[in-house]
């Protein structure tokens, strides 16, 4: 478990940019964005080789203990031992995930009006966090 941020106050029209280093022997890492640890609007989980997925980004939402349907992206711009920069753009109805050379959106299934919570887990070391 990496750093946990609370009271972010991210609203539609704002962006959160995360920079960090991926472990040389990485299997997967996670970034969670939501209201708190129990209400996750976006669970972002790049998997190098975990849970039966290879080089796949799995996204989901979580309401208390209940996970939603998994969404998979096959574009995988991450390298073991490399650095990563990911920007999450908060919109009214979804979150746009900006990756190097690729972007996709994930619906705001919990209808969160504000994203206050962010954490990282797994084989990723957070170097900087910025929002605008």
From TrEMBL:
The record's GO CC annotations read:
extracellular space
Galectin domain sequence ranges? 2-132
Q: Which GO terms describe its molecular function?
A: lactose binding; laminin binding
| Alphabetical keyword list | Lectin
Q: Which Pfam families does this UniProt record tie to the protein? A: Gal-bind_lectin
Indicate what this protein is called per its UniProt record: Galectin
Recorded source organism is Polioptila caerulea
Q: What is the lineage of its organism?
A: Eukaryota, Metazoa, Chordata, Craniata, Vertebrata
